[in-house]
Amino acid sequence: MSKINFDECLYFASARVNRIVAKISDDQFKKLGLSSTAAFILMYLDTGDAINPSAIADELSLDRSTVTRFLDKLQRQGYIERTSQGRSVTVALTKAGLNLQTDLKQMWSTLNDQYIELLGADGEQTLRTLLNTDFGVLKANNG
C-alpha cells in the first residue's frame, strides 16, 4: 500500500491552517467570553442600524442556522436585541453590546498583529490576499 501525501490535498492543507488560525483567534476573544464567530457578529452589528440576520450570514459567509444559534446566545448574554415586524426580523446591539466594541476592535487589531508576527507582514498579506481571491473564485463557481 502506498502512503498518502496529505500535503497534496487542498482540503487538508486549508483545514490545517484554519485550525491554527482559529485557535489563535478563539484564544483572543475568549478573554471576553466570546467565540471568534460571536465577536465578528458583534463587530459587524456596530453600524448603528438594525440588520437582518440574512445579511449577517451573507457578510460573514455563515449558514443562516449558524447565525441564528449565535444570535440566540448573544441575546441571552444581553449583547443584542431582536425586533420582529411581521415575518421580518432585525438585530441590533444593546448598550452592553455597544460597550464591548472598543475591546473587540482592540482584540481584532492585536489578533492581526499576532498573525503578522508569526507570518511576517508580507507573508500575512500574501496569505490573506490569496485566501480572499480564491474564496471569491470558489464562491462564484460553487454558490
From TrEMBL:
<keyword id="KW-0805">Transcription regulation</keyword>
<protein>
    <submittedName>
        <fullName>MarR family transcriptional regulator</fullName>
    </submittedName>
</protein>
<dbReference type="GO" id="GO:0003677">
    <property type="term" value="F:DNA binding"/>
</dbReference>
<dbReference type="GO" id="GO:0003700">
    <property type="term" value="F:DNA-binding transcription factor activity"/>
</dbReference>
<dbReference type="InterPro" id="IPR036388">
    <property type="entry name" value="WH-like_DNA-bd_sf"/>
</dbReference>
<dbReference type="Pfam" id="PF01047">
    <property type="entry name" value="MarR"/>
</dbReference>
<keyword id="KW-0804">Transcription</keyword>
<keyword id="KW-0238">DNA-binding</keyword>
<dbReference type="InterPro" id="IPR011991">
    <property type="entry name" value="ArsR-like_HTH"/>
</dbReference>
<dbReference type="InterPro" id="IPR000835">
    <property type="entry name" value="HTH_MarR-typ"/>
</dbReference>
<feature type="domain" description="HTH marR-type">
    <location>
        <begin position="7"/>
        <end position="136"/>
    </location>
</feature>
<dbReference type="InterPro" id="IPR036390">
    <property type="entry name" value="WH_DNA-bd_sf"/>
</dbReference>
